[in-house]
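Write out the bound-state structure for glutamic acid.
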Amino acid sequence: MPDAALPTIALLATGGTIAGAQTGEPSGAYRAGSLPVEALLSAVPGLQRLARLQPEQVASVGSQNIGLDTWATLVERVQALCADPSIDGIVITHGTDTLEETAYLLSLVLPWSKPVVLVGAMRPATALGADGPANLYNAVALAAHPQAFGRGPLVLMNDEIHEAALVQKMAANGVDAFASPNGGRAGTVHAGTPRFVRPAGAALPARFALPPRGDDGSRDWPVVDIVHAHAGMDGAVVDFMAARARGIVLAGVGDGNASDAVLDALERAALRGVAVVRSTRTGSGWVGRNVEVDDDARHFIAAGPLSPQKARVLLMLALAAGVTQAEAQALFEQA
Ligand code: GLU
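---
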């Protein structure tokens, strides 16, 4: 019987490997998002000693299929839970592939008040040594912890706490796939005890609203594409993207760079009003203005510390909010 004095934690399930069931024996094949939230909870002994849980199934998908509509549904649900005084914290189970994008989106559209913790697993729930149950236990402990307030959405994987702006899936396999290469992890959780390496900030209001609704009632997300640079590249893909996108993010080589042909195509796009952001395909570091590429002359925005996939999230919200190019540059520098 749950203790009425315990914190109440909403548990929103979206699918992913943490809810994955193997489809055959030793091959490693499995289907993400197969198990309902109740099955996840029943695999974690002791959860009811940490919190009173309020489970909800928001989606049942691998996170490669988390689309813009699911994002909007999830954001609206979490916004409502943040405003609900009977809820002390929120845990979201999520596939690991795009977990960092959802975490970063939430960090931009939610107030940084009560704890929101995203958690996944690298091994399916039916695998030997499944990491999901321990991750879920530690995520609930983190969401219930007083020091988790005022940090924005957090990610819990492999006993580590990561901040939404910094966290990144760095490897395709392995329980240690997540890291925060530009700033380090925010702390650890061992056997349900969180320890932070830096103090929390103040509770902040949300920085962005979701994009407004279009005529069909769904959110009008601006199209922002990502183009991945490589050696010997021409501008054809950029020209193709520029015909439909309101924004293009360059996953550039090195310091957000690309061949002259690609930079020229991006400049053509920028002159047509497409917002062009330069990020890096390297996985870490800071892309600054006017270092090797003349951003002033070419009308580009430098992504600062944001990965291409997070730069895309920020650019979509910024374009939907109607920010100018100069305002967008400042947003990326503060990201
Ligand atoms: N591709 C699936 C997803 O992102 C499985 C990966 C995972 O959850 O670790 O949901």
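---
DSSP finds nine helices and 16 strands in the chain.
The chain has two domains: 8-196, 224-334.
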